[in-house]
Amino acid sequence: MRRGQLFGGIAALAIATVVFILPFLFVFLNAAKSPSEASQPSFAWPSEWQFWQNLVDVVQVRDYALLLAYFNSIVITVGAIALLVIFAAMVGYVLQRRPSRVSRVVGFVALTGLMIPPAVVPTIWLLQEIGLFKTLHGMVLIQVAYGLSFCILLFRAFVASIPRDLDEAAIVDGATPLQVFFRVILPLLKPVTLTVIVVQSITIFNDFTHPLYYLPGSENITVQLTLYNFQSQFTSQLNLLFMNILLITIPPLLVFIFFNRQIVSGMTSGAVKG
Amino acid sequence: MTQKSPYPYWFFLPAAVIFLGLFIVPTVASFYFSLTYWDPFEARFAGWDNYVQFFSEPFLIRGTLNTLFFAFVTSVLKTILGLLLAVLLTSGIFGQSFLRSVVFFPVLVSTIGVGILFQELMHPTEGAINVALAAIGIDGPGWLTNPSLALFSVALVDVWRGVGLATLIYIAGLSTIPNDYYEAARIDGATRWQLFWRVTVPLVWPATTTVIILSLIGGLRLFDLVWAMTRGGPGFSSDVLASVIYKQYQAGFWGLSTAGNVILFLLIALIVAPLAWWLNSKELDA
Cα distance from A88 to chain B (closest Cα, Å)? Predict the structure, then answer.
């Protein structure tokens, strides 16, 4: 390592610390303060640490709303991802294996989902008509609809790397299309499936806008909405607000630590022309 | 009857039902509903009234212009800063992989959390940013309370939050440039400046296209950060189309809200589609 790289690195570290790390330290410090100290949040060290006390307090607010929110968010995330993986993999597989006019049209329609903003009020109207408004399973289906385009794209690209001989061998042996897909193809899609799971779980867990529109009601609260609801209630208890931010940042942080590689490959797909 | 394909089209069916039913149908319906006086109880045909209102009420015009301003500023900053950071973080500097993680992490954090955090940091008198500025003798502005600055402040926070993704995409793009190109140019006596403009920028162009398109779409559609930080205020000074859509929905003006949705759709289609085509054509020349 040259000297320039060392000094450049130290300078970059110093700037990155100020710009990107201090804000998180700010959250952490103020999440540990007493309400009066946190009423003017600053970088001052807490005179006494009441981290655990604040954690207990914020969990108990509004009859354990945060726990309910965690439960709802996990149900939505897990449900949506289960459907997304199966349905998007089926589409990506046939799109890649069967080039035809039908496939081109389907591929184009799927792409529109990456660009078009959802028409929110007509969607609410539709959900009301079919009885899915304000329901967790309605929210699951919405997240599936909004996530499909991205997942189909990833799956289609990955299927191209699986040799056709494998499905043909299974077909010759008399396997039905479903058997070929579930027994031969789906197991081979494991790497891209993991990428899809990681990226989509963060996206859905962090989604604020769509639950705000489609899932109103205190019994339907999701983690991002807790922050929003507490924002007005906690004006005198900013320590709890910061504790809340901290608590809902932990799941993405864990995913980031353990699945860094999948996040990088999922989020940069399309950056490099393949 | 032809032989059955081993790759049947009905594999599209489950995804198609959900996607068409919950995404395409409402999108198509939005064109009709945007032409109605629509509230929770009834929809009456209104012709172009909602659109006329959208382009005659000053606060609605402001929302549209703000949306364009926001998308433009954030895209430009993310593209430039993303490329510079990516070049820095692939140059083999000390602490490189740690720095990459640090720059990227805000992408994964709750937007509402980021919004609340910066709302506190940008407080005009007690916020940490202005306290720090005061310490070096600068009288910091009212980042979110000054109507002519509020939207720009939100844009800066959006860049802080999103530049990590642009950097990541650029790092992936840079890693595909063969080292030989740099070697050859260096032997020909190219300066570092020339290397950057003549080798890096043209060869990383596919990544630039991706960053610009992603940032523009994200910027035009942005809702959560504005809502967490300013609710469109002070007044209507930081309203964007997405926050107007939400406010009109809340107020019961469903037709007007849906017209805003259609305008947003048309803006994205009219800006992003030609731009993507143009950027891709530049790629062939490079």
Answer: 7
